[in-house]
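Example 458, ligand magnesium ion.
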Amino acid sequence: MLSQRRLFGTNGIRGLVNKELTPELAIAIGSAIGTYLHCGDLLVGYDARTSSPMLAKAVVSGLNATGCSVLFAGMAPTPALQYAVKKHRLDGGVIITASHNPPEYNGIKVLWNDGIEIAREQEIEVENIFFDKKFRYVEWDKIGSVKDLTGIIEEYVEAIKGHVDVAKIASKHYHVVIDAANSVAALAVPKLLRELGCRVTTINANIDGTFPARPPEPRPENLGDLASTVKAMGADLGVAFDGDADRSIFVDEKGEIHWGDKTFALVEKHFLLQNPGEKIVSPISSSTLVKDIADAYCGEIVWTKVGSVIVSHTMKKLGAKLGGEENGGIFYGPHQPVRDGAMATALILGIMAETGKKLSSLLAGLPKYFIEKGTVECPEQLKEKVLERLIEQTRGLNINTIDGVKIWFEDKSSILVRPSGTEPLYRLYAEAKTRRKALRLVQDFILKLKRIINSLKV
Ligand code: MG
């Protein structure tokens, strides 16, 4: 962070607390955001991190100094705060969260008046104000006020219930185990599920910003406790959230953990059964599974660059009602076009209730792919040239170059080759109908990339 006049990364501002992201910096960032948003009423809330209240107060200072009034919502899931901005017709918002990053990190997200994070062009304007120190401080009698805003979690839960068949879900008396990552999912999801008539068991549901139980990223290797609890208790479903509860990863009744592509494809299938012809928005890094489902159920897939904010903005621009990412982000437009872990959980329960099937059998009915990944070191200054050369070599193939290059082959295998945004690396993601083929694709393209890089070095 703070390199080359850049504050924002792919998901807001992130940094190590009190090293990169200090209270002084947070005041200046708050002042830049307030100057950019030009007064109005802004929502401020935060996740469960130890540093969140401290940074939130600093940001509020900056906002007030530039004449913005703040409605202070306190600790809440990111999607609940995003919903509150829309529901209360506010002019925007600021969320203090580092999502899935380790506990020593924190971050700042800026929301527009629709609850969606601001677009890159708007971030650049905030960055320019910040680096040029063009803060629009107001006179003493124009300083913004701070009021508490209560009840946003109840409103959020109520809104989600409006998008599913509550009576049908409740009639099934599902037993659901929630792994809240010791963070804000615990404030909303158990309440939602109880109101959906579920029996709820929680693990890691005590709020603790040190994340003592597991890292806040819901990767399969962090979810062993959830999987074994679901199995041991004979529960119907398990669900794990990331640190700010916008992503959810599901565990079936057998204790098997499923990565986000699969649960998104399931939601997509049932959405398209009821809404044929709709557009489905997904980053190019998603599985071909997502396209298979769109093709089979009369949907139209729209690939985007990688990044949840890009998916949200694309959905808004196209009026699309569904989006999804492989990491467990599901965007349900009729509720709000942003990732929402609690909404995703309600949708999955709705599908189980509607079909009367267990999650394992619902997912077993989807096309299967094997995924293999790889990396190749590549100096920063060569990245662009390497991509150009690689694209030249793929002439005649079925490719998409929206973010790196993705190549689809006739046997349904594919590979995505993307320069890392943060490290001197190229990342490769291959997918195929057999593990051997996926592995071979990765190996072939590692060789191809190395050859190109070496030829450019001489
Ligand atoms: Mg998150």
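Summary: The two ends are 32 Å apart (CA to CA).
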